[in-house]
Amino acid sequence: MSPWTVAAEPYDSPTAAALWRAYYTEVSDRWYERESGHATDPDELERGIASQSGADLAPPTGVLLVARYEGVAAGTAGVRLLDGVRAELTRVFLLPGMRGKGGGSVLMPAAERAALGFGARELVLDTRHDLTESHALYERHGFRRIPAYADTGPYSERWYGKQLCGVFGEASPMY
User: Fold this and answer.
1) N-acetyltransferase domain: which residues (predicted)?
2) Strand pairing of 86-94 and 122-127?
3) Which helix (H) or strand (E) is 75 found in, with range?
4) Buried-most residue among 42, 86, 105, 136 (CB within 10 A)?
5) 68-121 pLDDT, tens per residue?
């Protein structure tokens, strides 16, 4: 039996808030280290965390999935419906100490099932060039590089997509 479980969690729960803080801090600090040679200014970090509530991950068109390792919250993946056929994957994150234990391989199929549950047939995402671990995860799970699907913001540098089929587990590249 796997030590991993994945379940929907309210985007504004204390668990979701703690994981969002960890996620945002890591990606913000990585960007600032790369661009400026220092971690994010604490006031700016707080503004950034507060600016994205996660409300777009609330039902009926969104979900925040929380992965737990032996019952302890360890990571997230969010899915939000963009239109009638496409959903977006966001907030894919595992706490640093939980990486390499198979959490990504539990979160990704759960996110695909969630997208299918919304009626989506495509799952897309954007990421940054420096988040190389995420590139490998997405590619391992059948995502392929695609052109930008929207103006997804100043930190979007790379886009991925995957065609989802009506029967989970059968997927083909979108492009």
Assistant:
1) 18-165
2) parallel
3) strand 72-81
4) 86
5) 999 999 999 999 999 889 999 999 999 999 999 999 999 999 999 999 999 999
Residue 50 is part of a domain; what is its CATH number?
3.40.630.30
pLDDT of residue 1: 86
Q: How far is the first Cα of the chain from the last one, in angstroms, to the nearest whole number?
A: 36
For residue 89, the cross-strand partners are 79
Question: Residue 167: which domain range?
Answer: 4-172
Q: How many domains in the chain?
A: 1
How far apart CA 125 and CA 149 sit, in angstroms, is: 9
Q: Fill in the amino acid letter for 103.
A: G
Distance between CA atoms of 109 and 89, rounded to whole angstroms? 12
